[in-house]
Amino acid sequence: MIRKLALAAAAATLFAPLTATAQTLPTTPYLPLDIATKAADAALKACVAEGHNVSVAIVARDGSTKVLLKADNSGPHTATSATGKAFTSAAMGRDTAGLAGFIASKPANEGLRDMDPRMVIQAGGLPVKIGGALVAGIGVGGAPSGDIDAGCATAGLKAIGAAE
């Protein structure tokens, strides 16, 4: 009898479901596609309203392009320019005009230009920060100046409440 009880207890132990210890996974803020599209569309409309046929890109924090919009009759180079500026802002967490000034201020910083071939260090790229978290970069390329590109990018940030 004792032997039967011991075997039953051993079998119950072996076949009992294992209790998994739940671990808390890290959570990372991100920019949802609908919000990214809203920002890109607002930036594009701002530039088109001023008569500039540009491209607008949103690049996620991980470096992937989420949105790319090209205005009718925008130049073939504008998509690469916009994407590079957005990538640079997402990667570095700062505006590309400020980064260009930072590099120009000290020759030792020149190496930043060669960190990644996707980087475009010209005005027109801004970081997208929501609730203090860097979630993406927005880039505009194709207006007559980087300042105009940056102004259109700012319009995109304002449309989603991310303008500083």
3D architecture notes:
- By secondary structure, this protein is α+β, with helices and mostly antiparallel strands.
- The protein has a single domain, classed as Beta-Lactamase (2-Layer Sandwich).
- The protein is 43% helix and 16% strand.
- It is built from five helices and four strands.
- The chain has helices spanning 2-15, 33-49, 78-92, 96-105, 146-159, and strands at residues 55-60, 65-70, 125-130, 133-141.
- A hairpin with a 4-residue loop joins strand 1 and strand 2.
- The model has no long low-confidence stretch (mean pLDDT 91).
Q: Short description, anyone?
A:
This protein is α+β, with helices and mostly antiparallel strands and 164 residues long. It is 43% helix and 16% strand.
How far is the first residue's CA from the last residue's CA?
A: 77 Å
Largest sheet: 4 strands, antiparallel
Radius of gyration, whole Å: 25 Å
- According to CATH, the fold-level topology is Beta-Lactamase
| Level-1 CATH class name | Alpha Beta
Order of helices and strands: HHEEHHEEH
- The CATH homologous superfamily is called Haem-degrading domain
Largest sheet, order of strands side by side? 2-1-4-3
- Note the beta-strand portion: 15-25%
3D shape: globular
Q: What's the structural domain tally?
A: 1
In helices, the fraction of residues equals 40-55%
CATH architecture: 2-Layer Sandwich
Q: Which ranges are low-confidence, i.e. pLDDT below 50, for 5 or more consecutive residues? A: none
**SS-based class:** alpha+beta
